Amino acid sequence: MVEITIPKPDDWHLHLRDGAMLEGVLPYSARHFARAIIMPNLMPPVVTGADAQAYRDRIMAALPKGMQFKPLMTLYLTEGTDAADVARAHTSGLVTAVKLYPAGATTNSNSGVRDLAKVMPVLEKMAEIGMPLCIHGEVADPSVDIFDREAVFIDTVLDPLRRTLPQLKMTLEHVTTSNGVDYVMAADANLAASITTHHLMINRNAILAGGIKPHYYCLPVAKRESHRLALRKAATSGDSRFFLGTDSAPHVDPLKECACGCAGIFTSINTLSCLAHVFEEDNALDRLEKFAGLNGPAWYGLPVNGETVTLIKRDQPVSFPSRIETGDGPVTVFDPRVPIHWEVV
Ligand code: DOR
Ligand code: ZN
């Protein structure tokens, strides 16, 4: 039996939703994670400091008694966002970061940004006060192949923005390509990336080979195997610029299993077990704590969590529910497609 104890991880990219879904999924994150960066793509989105305060209150109200969890709030950047409101929300400690969704790139992104010039005053203010920008790094241009949208975003949006505002601290979220990994590694400062559990474990064959598998569909979509291997190398390297952001994104099964299924994979339940499997496979178990527990706090300027979690490797595979029930309906849990022997105890 092998055992590993690491500082309690944080999830640097999480969708908690609202209402009954929030109540259904929050306990799974709170069980394994001390804090999480909470995505603001609700309907309507979390745009102002007041929206973030109200959403934070709803999250805390949904937290089961006795559980500890700190939501790190984000604001959804729109072309109407008020720079002064953003700055107030950050300096008061209410909001950790701002989220940039290129309009049309993903779920509930229609209120996002079409023209970066319109949000430059907000970005300049953020650079001035040291507030990070979390980025969904894909162009939404329908003429760009969906498998190329991250690479094109890096060349046509991210790189120019970094040259214009080198002082702005940016997180390239859920990076899915070797292009993204290389770009982050080549940056001299102010750029880091989160990586999801599922992008470390699946490539695009999981979605498309042998029948279409909607529960492996997410955005950015999983790419070819060479990209997955680049992500594995970055995550398990210990490089402080790469850390865990699960992008756990629950949708009820009827909205995934239909003619136009939603993007999102729900991994909060088994993420840590899957990560231990991945890091062990790559002979990097000793670096799991960097990826899941140390690099993120360092990047966001927060203390490492005092609590710890322990994972034990069982002789028999650990079983996880294939779906959970929520007040909104069933949500399928990420199936890693290999036996997982690691259990959080
Ligand atoms: O797969 C995804 N699901 N990617 C996103 O960018 C959004 C998320 C969601 O909100 O469902
Ligand atoms: Zn997301």
Output the keywords.
binds (4S)-2,6-dioxohexahydropyrimidine-4-carboxylic acid; TIM Barrel; 345 residues; 17% strand; binds zinc ion; three-stranded antiparallel β-sheet; alpha/beta; eight-stranded parallel β-sheet; 13 strands
What does the model show?
The chain is an alpha/beta fold and 345 residues long. The chain has a single domain, classed as TIM Barrel, CATH 3.20.20.140. Helices cover 35% and strands 17% of the residues. Strands 2-3-4-5-6-7-8-9 form an eight-stranded parallel beta sheet. A three-stranded antiparallel beta sheet has the order 1-10-13, covered by helices on one side. Helix 5 links the parallel strand 6 and strand 7. The two termini are 13 Å apart. The model has no long low-confidence stretch (mean pLDDT 98). Zinc ion binds next to loops.
- CATH C-level label: Alpha Beta
Query: Could you say which overall geometry the principal axes of the C-alpha atoms support?
Result: globular
The SSE string, one letter per element, is: EEHEHEHEHEHEHEHHHEHHHEEEE
**Unreliable parts:** none
Cofactors and ligands: (4S)-2,6-dioxohexahydropyrimidine-4-carboxylic acid, zinc ion
CATH domain topology: TIM Barrel
What is the topology?
Layout lengths: L1 E6 L3 E4 L4 H14 L2 E4 L10 H14 L7 E7 L6 H9 L3 E6 L19 H10 L3 E3 L13 H16 L5 E3 L5 H9 L4 E5 L1 H5 L3 H4 L16 H13 L4 E3 L8 H4 L14 H11 L6 H13 L7 E6 L9 E4 L2 E4 L9 E3 L1
Parallel strand pairs: 2-3, 3-4, 4-5, 5-6, 6-7, 7-8, 8-9
Antiparallel strand pairs: 1-10, 10-13, 11-12
Helix pairs in contact: 3-4
The site of zinc ion (ZN) has 5 residues, from loops.
